[in-house]
Amino acid sequence: MKAILLSYSQMLRQMKKDPMLLVIAFVPVLVGLLFRFGIPLVEMQLINYLAIEHIISPYYGLLDLFLVMLTPSMYNFVIAMVVLEEADERLISYLAVTPLGKTGYLLSRFGLTGIISMVMSVIVFALFHHVSMNTAMLIGLAIVSTVQGVCSALLIVAFSANKVEGMAVGKFTMLFTLGALAPFFINEKAQYIFSVLPSYWLAKAVKESDYILIGIALFAVLMWMVLPTKRFNKKIA
What we know:
Layout: H1 2-15, H2 19-25, H3 27-50, H4 60-88, H5 91-96, H6 101-128, H7 135-158, H8 163-173, H9 182-185, H10 198-208, H11 211-235
């Protein structure tokens, strides 16, 4: 455990050299502020102008879900960029033969970051949410969102040769979150096109208050992780 913590602290020192990565770490808070205070203000202006009862408020649950998913997504994107840089400098091969080992390396990058991002996801939701949510539901959403964030990071490092390609693949992995729109905006039958995406099941879980759907979302994201995990293991072998 000591080796894992030392490796993680070394990674944090490395991140200080790249201001962009540090800024990304604060994106969830900035978006939280926008969601919590900016959107209600905009809606109020639109309601007054259009003379209708509500516009955005029926979708506050969706906004809260995006807030839960955003923190793990951003944090794991940062880790993916760090891992790509370490792979480019051949540091991973070196670290794998130290007492840290390959497993320790993965835990120091994805494991600890996953735990931190899950906790931060709950905190960001608690600070900036619009609608109340059962604690069990929130924890379930945070767990699946964290695994989804790790999956996105693995996709980036598995299918990118460098940080430039990683940013391009990172934009593609943002499609993971778009499945959350389907239960709110697409009719019942057509929306199942998005059922391969974990975020689709998370959105249905929020909309229908169904905990079983969180389990389906977790299964879906674990299936998504199989290919990038195998490819990444070959990459660092």
